[in-house]
């Protein structure tokens, strides 16, 4: 791991940025200049002034996404601020281009005020076809995303929904491998932030058509104080809302207590929190998806030795990497191509099933496609486009 850190620093020093702008048209002659800029550029401006929707046809709006972060919850690094978040947002922009052909721009805001973030995104929105909110801490991220759903373009917090979509795809295929039904599974989620909340909502089909989404039997969400239950005092509004669709049996206690007879453990918290004894108390053939980075809640070898049937992490050096790059490029590609105004709940389910279907014969070592698989984004994009077309049709 130290080698990756050192090599990455060297590459960043050499490149001084992983992305850059390129020109789509030449400017070699006075004629080129007159078309690209003045006087010719006045005509498309006049057309757009009469009909703002024409910006989709005449500008970069049709293929541009803003990656907006305040640097308050970056990877496993925490609140490192706007400047330190730039390398991550650049990396994400690079992945947008490589996997979906989308021009994405790192927009790292030097504010962590909720309303200022909302206002800034509103002001920059005209040039973009979508907004990818990234690495904004909970609970602020919930309000930012909610307040921006009326922009007329998709506003999607990837740490929430991208993670949940990839996780659901992994669980769909893991269930196939061990011949179980999702609807019979009890799930424990360790981590009640943005990702944990979104995963809980998606697994319990909150806001989804029950004919399309099959909910797991129950989800118990744990934070640093243990299980979130109805008798706990001092819960935040966000954690109180979780109880509307989680912990049906009102289980109390710490992580070890609620792991008894659970079928699935999902970690979006901190490294080395899950013990072999926790896994040994689970049901037969347990599924462990330990996604804390860079150190997972339990190392795969230890989980398997404790009896786990399937293990996934957020890391690329182990099988079954649960990585958002499997979701967000295709989601935005499909949304841009269909000019969707938002990413609907139905789109999230469709994306998860399309991603799961990319693995034709799942095994314990392969419940998700390789993050470098170039066929994934087009498959997810097609699913998003299909839902958008159906939804927008008369």
Automatic annotation (TrEMBL):
Superkingdom per UniProt: Bacteria
Keywords: Metal-binding, Oxidoreductase
SUPFAM superfamilies: Aminoacid dehydrogenase-like, N-terminal domain, NAD(P)-binding Rossmann-fold domains
Domain Malic enzyme NAD-binding: 160-389
InterPro entries: Aminoacid_DH-like_N_sf, Malate_Decarboxylase, Malic_enzyme_CS, Malic_N_dom, Malic_N_dom_sf, Malic_NAD-bd, Malic_NAD-bd_bact_type, Malic_OxRdtase
Annotated Malic enzyme N-terminal domain residues: 16-149
Pfam family, one: Malic_M
CDD domains cross-referenced by the UniProt entry: NAD_bind_2_malic_enz
Names of required cofactors: Mg(2+); Mn(2+)
PROSITE patterns named among the record's database cross-references: MALIC_ENZYMES
Record family assignment: Belongs to the malic enzymes family.
Listed name of the protein: Malate dehydrogenase
Species name: Novipirellula rosea
């Amino acid at each position: 791991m130290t080698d990756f850190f050192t090599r990455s620093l060297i590459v960043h020093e050499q490149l001084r940025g992983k992305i850059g702008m390129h020109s789509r048209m030449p400017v070699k002659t006075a004629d080129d200049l007159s078309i690209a800029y003045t006087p010719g550029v006045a005509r498309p401006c006049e057309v757009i002034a009469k009909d703002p929707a024409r910006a989709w046809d005449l500008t970069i709006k049709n293929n541009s996404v803003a990656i907006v972060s305040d640097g308050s919850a970056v990877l496993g690094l925490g609140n490192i601020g706007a400047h330190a978040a730039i390398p991550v947002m650049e990396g994400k922009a690079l992945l947008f281009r490589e996997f979906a052909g989308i021009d994405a721009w790192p927009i790292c805001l030097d504010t962590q005020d909720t309303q200022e973030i909302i206002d800034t995104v509103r002001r920059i929105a005209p040039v973009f076809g979508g907004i990818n909110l990234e690495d904004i801490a909970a609970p602020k991220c919930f309000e930012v995303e909610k307040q921006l759903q009326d922009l007329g373009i998709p506003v999607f917090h990837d740490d929430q929904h991208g993670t949940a979509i990839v996780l659901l795809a992994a669980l769909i295929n893991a269930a196939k491998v061990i011949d179980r039904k999702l609807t019979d599974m009890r799930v424990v989620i360790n981590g009640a932030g943005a990702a944990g909340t979104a995963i809980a909502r998606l697994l319990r089909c909150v806001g989804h058509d029950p004919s399309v989404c099959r909910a797991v039997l129950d989800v118990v969400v744990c934070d640093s104080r243990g299980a979130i239950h109805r008798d706990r005092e001092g819960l935040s509004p966000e954690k109180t809302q979780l109880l509307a669709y989680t912990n049906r049996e009102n289980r109390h206690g710490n992580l070890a207590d609620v792991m008894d007879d659970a079928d699935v453990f999902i970690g979006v918290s901190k490294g080395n929190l899950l013990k072999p004894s926790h896994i040994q108390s689970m049901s037969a053939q347990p599924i462990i998806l330990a996604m804390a980075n860079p150190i997972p809640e339990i190392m795969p070898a230890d989980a398997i030795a404790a009896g786990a049937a399937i293990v996934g992490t957020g890391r690329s050096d182990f099988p079954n990497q649960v990585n958002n790059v499997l979701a967000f490029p295709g989601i935005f590609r499909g949304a841009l191509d269909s000019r969707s105004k938002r990413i609907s709940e139905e789109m999230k389910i469709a994306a998860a099933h399309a991603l799961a279907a990319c693995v034709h014969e799942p095994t314990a070592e392969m419940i998700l496609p390789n993050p470098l698989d170039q066929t994934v984004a087009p498959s997810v994009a097609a699913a998003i486009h299909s839902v958008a077309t159906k939804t927008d049709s008369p």
